[in-house]
Each structure stands twice: as structure tokens, then as C-alpha cells.
Amino acid sequence: MRLHHLLLALLFLVLSAGSGFTQGVRNPLSCGRNKGVCVPIRCPGHMRQIGTCLGAPVKCCRRK
After folding, report:
1. CB-side exposure of 15: number of CA atoms within 13 Å?
2. CA nearest 47: which of 29, 34, 64, 60?
3. Range of 21's domain?
4. pLDDT tens across 20-58, in order?
5. What 8-state DSSP symbol labels residue 44?
6. What is the CATH number of the domain that holds 14?
7. Ranges for the Beta/alpha-defensin C-terminal domain (predicted)?
8. Which helix (H) or strand (E) holds 61?
9. Partner of 9 at 20 to 30 A CA spacing, among 1, 24, 35, 36?
10. Which residues contact 55 (CB under 8 A, 6 or more apart)?
11. CA dihedral 14, 20, 23, 28 (to 10 degrees)
12. Residue 38 forms beta bridges with which residues?
């Protein structure tokens, strides 16, 4: 029974540590940290969207 608790704690630790890497770009500060720029319309052809800035209409774009 102790082994089950240990394995459950280990699983929780692994999953919680990995969750930080799944957070997206959602504000201008994190956009800039990821070498992106906030664009009020679609990303230009030489850029791709990596997230949003201040809501859905404003895109965070980075060079391809």
C-alpha cells in the first residue's frame, strides 16, 4: 500500500512539473519574452502565431 502512495506522489510530481511548459502566450510581456510581437490583425506571411495579447483579436506573432 505504501508503494501505491509513493507511485501516486511521483506521478503527481511529474505531471505538475510538466504543466509549466504547456502554458501559452497570453499577454504582451510573455509575447516579448518569446521573441514575439503583438499584432492587432492576422500575422503577416513571414510570421506565425504563437499566442494572443490582451485577448483573441490581438495576436502574438514570431518569425517562422
Report:
1. 6
2. 64
3. 1-63
4. 444 578 889 999 999 999 999 899 999 999 999 987 889
5. P
6. 3.10.360.10
7. 31-61
8. strand 59-63
9. 24
10. none
11. 180
12. 60
Place of cell 510581437: 37
Q: How far apart are CA 16 and CA 27, in angstroms?
A: 22
Alpha helices, H only, the chain: 2-18, 28-33
- DSSP letter, residue 25: B
C-alpha cell at 64: 517562422
Q: Which helix (H) or strand (E) holds 51?
A: strand 47-52
Q: What is the pLDDT of residue 46?
A: 95
Number of domains in the chain: 1
